[in-house]
Specification:
Blueprint: E1 16-17, E2 39-40, E3 50-55, H1 58-66, E4 75-78, E5 85-88, H2 90-94, H3 103-109, E6 114-116, H4 120-135, E7 141-145, E8 148-152, H5 157-160, H6 164-178, E9 183-188, H7 191-198, E10 206-209, H8 214-219, H9 231-239, H10 245-249, H11 253-260, H12 262-271, E11 287-298, H13 301-322, E12 324-335, E13 340-351, H14 354-368, E14 374-386, H15 400-417, E15 440-441
Parallel strand pairs: 4-6, 9-10
Antiparallel strand pairs: 1-2, 3-8, 3-9, 4-5, 7-8, 11-14, 11-15, 12-13, 12-14
Helix pairs in contact: 11-12, 13-14
Length: 454
Amino acid sequence: MFASMAIPVNDPEHGFCRDCLRLQSGPVRRCERCGSPRLARHAELYGLHLAHIDCDAFYAAVEKRDNPALRDKPVIIGGGKRGVVSTACYIARIQGVRSAMPMFKALEACPEAIVIKPDMEKYVRVGREVRAMMQALTPLVEPISIDEAFLDLAGTERLHGLPPALVLARFALQVEKEIGITVSTGLSYCKFLAKVASDFRKPRGFSIIGEVEAQEFLAEQPVTLIWGVGKAFAAVLERDGIRLIGQLQRMERNELMRRYGTMGDRLYHLARGEDDRRIHADRDTKSVSAETTFDMDLASADDLVPVLRSLSEKVAARLRKAGLAGRTVVLKLKSADFKIRTRNRQLGDPTRLADRIFSTGLDLLRREMDGTRYRLLGIGVSDISDDGKADPPDLVDVQARKRALAEGAIDALRDKFGGKAVETGYTFGKGHRGRPARPDEDEGPEVQHPWERI
């Protein structure tokens, strides 16, 4: 099957060692060469080529890499007491800390944790290094977020001289050695199950779900394993007496669609391990945004407007750097009782200018300043396109072009001298880039892609 490979292929039920890549000659419990118990073996080991790779506790792993003194300590990446957990290392997770958990609850669960404010610039840089290593394996890399992606390794055996399973194991070792963090890999015949497999046995996991075993495996899993079945929809299924995927497998497609609409069609196919989606290397950007969580709830324009201006400048800079523009401005607010408000407005033309993003967001914000106190403010743009048609000349607003040129000049100064080099009148004297009381930023990657967990 792999006659051109540099090494012979062994019995897939014997597999290979994930630490030294030695092929095993028999059904041993430990590697015949190095003694490691981390053996990869599966009946379909050498026939599968769709993979999902996920960096383990990515933000925390990068911080531990850069500060070895943190290695054996619980680490939480996130804001202050008013923020949320961006990620937590596995030591903290053992004590109950979870992503998106309010910080005060995380510190109640793990009071000895070391809290580090997110350094998104650093995480994006490391994420790009991992991405470049993925793209050296195959051109079919579909990023899902800053630290995870799908890969299709079909047809790469001749290039690498190895089957996909061994290529992925070697990749994991290279990431550990060259970048200093760990990854977990899921290998399967479809995207849904590759993603499911990568979540097993973290960290440093390498899990396989084959086509022969898929339905039997899924039958015993909770319905929440299926993407789109969150707490609310799981409660709907629970009321209908459906808790396990196996129950869905016994239902007809028409019945599921009658009960749950288009979601019923998804339930029918994914419950049976049917997912024909392909890996797409070029993915359209869905939105670009920035948000911040305050140390104290804020309600006044004096407090909120400078923050809105600062975030608008950040979004605009990211758009220009990526060569993108957005036509719909989206305002996000979270009130003191954790209720989220989102408001949006479509522009006549796509924009990449902070001035237009801010002025539109400001109009939306003024409508929400009704005495409500807010713990979070965010601004972003959607309906993304390239910037070729962004911000055409405005015959009414003759100063628009001058402001656009000024923003480009500000970008250059900030790139050279740092983000604090230039401030506008909205943010000057208002704290760090307009943020009162040093609020904690809960930012995503520079550009957000459509989220598909399956």
